[in-house]
C-alpha cells in the first residue's frame, strides 16, 4: 500500500535534492520540444515525485501556452493546467488505448505513468518521434539498462537512438540526523569499495540516535541520481546494439556520473553513511 499526502509534497525541482549539475542537465532535457525522457528505479525510489516536479516545472516555465496530458495508474496528485487521465483496465481503458486517444488530441507534452509492455512502449516511442515530448518511467537496474529493456519489448535500436534524449536513474537514501551526526569509521570490509585517495579526504559521519530522529540516526531523505544524456556518440553505440555494460561505459566516458559515484559524494561529505549507499545500490553496480 502506498500512501500519498498531497498537503505534504513540494514539486519544486530544487526540493528533489539533486546535485546542482544533475539538476541543471535535467532541466535542460525538459526544454526539448520532442523525444523521450525516461526515469528508472525500483518502487519507492522517487520517480513519481520527480516526474510530477518535471511537469510542474514545464507549467511554471511555459504557463497555459503548453498543452500537457498524462496517462496514469493511478492519478496520484492533481496538477494545475495539466489534463490527467487514469487507466481503467476493467473498462478496457488501458495505457495503449489511452495513449492513442491522447495522440489524437495532439498535446505537446505527454506523461505516461509507466511503460509496462511492448504496445505502450511502441506508442510512446512513436509519440516521441512525431513532435511530442514524452516523459515516462520504466523499471531497470541502471540507466543504460533501459535500452536493453526496450529492445526486449521489440523496439528497434534505431527507434530508441532517435527518440530517447535522456534517462534518469533514481534512488532515495536516508540522510544523517543533523542533531546527532558524529564522525565514525566504516568497517574495513566496506572501505574497500572506496578509493584510498577518497578515504583520505572523507568526512565519514553517522547519527548516534536522538529524540529528533527517534534514535534511528537518520532524519529525512534525499535522492541520488544517474543521469544519462544521449548524444551522437551514445546514439551510435545504441545503433551498434552494444550490451548494457558497454553502453554504460560509453555514457561514463561522455560525462555521466554513476549512481555509485553520486552516492559516494554524499558519503564523503557526511550527508549519509557508506552503509546506507550500499543498502540501496546493488554491489554489481559499484
> Which CATH class is shown?
Alpha Beta
Number of strands: 9
Strand order of the largest sheet: 3-2-4-5-1-6-9
**Count of DSSP helices?**
12
Query: Kindly state the mean pLDDT as a whole number?
Result: 93
CATH topology: Rossmann fold
Helix fraction bin: 25-40%
Q: What's the number of structural domains? A: 1
* Overall geometry: globular
What does this structure look like?
There is one protein chain. With 286 residues, the chain is α/β, with parallel strands linked by helices. The chain has one domain (6-172, 221-259): P-loop containing nucleotide triphosphate hydrolases (Rossmann fold). Helix content is 38%, strand content 20%. The chain has twelve helices and nine strands. The chain has helices at 20-29, 47-62, 95-105, 118-129, 145-151, 157-163, 188-191, 196-201, 232-239, 244-253, 259-268, 274-280; strands at residues 35-40, 68-72, 83-86, 109-112, 133-138, 164-176, 181-183, 205-207, 218-229. A seven-stranded mixed sheet has the order 3-2-4-5-1-6-9, sandwiched between helices. The longest helix is centred in the N-terminal third of the chain and has 16 residues, at 47-62.
Amino acid at each position: 500500500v502506498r500512501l500519498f499526502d498531497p498537503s505534504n509534497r513540494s514539486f519544486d525541482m530544487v526540493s528533489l535534492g539533486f546535485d546542482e549539475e544533475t539538476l541543471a542537465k535535467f532541466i535542460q532535457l525538459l526544454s526539448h520540444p520532442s523525444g523521450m525522457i525516461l526515469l528508472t528505479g525500483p518502487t519507492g525510489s522517487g520517480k513519481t515525485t520527480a516526474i510530477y516536479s518535471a511537469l510542474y516545472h514545464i507549467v511554471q516555465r511555459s504557463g497555459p501556452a503548453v498543452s500537457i496530458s498524462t496517462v496514469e495508474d493511478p492519478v496520484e496528485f492533481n496538477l494545475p493546467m495539466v489534463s490527467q487521465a487514469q487507466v481503467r483496465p476493467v473498462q478496457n481503458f488501458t495505457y495503449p488505448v489511452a495513449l492513442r486517444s491522447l495522440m489524437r488530441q495532439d498535446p505537446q507534452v505527454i506523461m505516461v505513468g509507466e511503460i509496462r509492455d511492448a504496445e505502450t512502449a511502441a506508442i510512446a516511442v512513436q509519440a516521441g518521434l512525431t513532435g511530442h515530448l514524452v516523459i515516462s518511467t520504466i523499471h531497470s537496474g541502471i540507466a543504460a539498462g533501459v535500452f536493453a529493456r526496450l529492445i526486449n519489448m521489440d523496439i528497434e535500436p534505431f527507434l530508441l537512438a532517435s527518440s530517447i534524449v535522456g534517462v534518469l536513474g533514481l534512488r532515495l537514501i536516508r540522510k544523517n540526523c543533523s542533531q546527532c551526526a558524529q564522525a565514525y569509521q566504516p568497517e574495513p570490509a566496506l572501505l574497500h569499495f572506496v578509493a584510498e585517495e577518497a578515504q583520505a579526504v572523507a568526512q565519514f559521519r553517522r547519527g548516534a540516535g536522538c529524540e529528533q530522529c527517534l534514535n534511528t540516526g537518520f532524519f529525512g531523505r534525499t535522492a541520488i541520481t544517474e543521469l544519462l544524456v544521449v548524444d551522437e556518440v551514445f546514439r551510435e553505440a545504441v545503433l551498434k546494439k552494444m550490451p548494457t555494460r558497454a553502453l554504460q561505459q560509453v555514457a561514463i566516458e561522455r560525462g555521466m556520473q554513476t549512481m555509485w559515484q553520486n552516492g559516494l559524494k554524499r558519503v564523503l561529505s557526511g550527508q549519509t553513511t557508506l552503509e546506507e549507499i550500499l543498502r540501496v545500490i546493488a554491489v554489481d553496480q559499484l
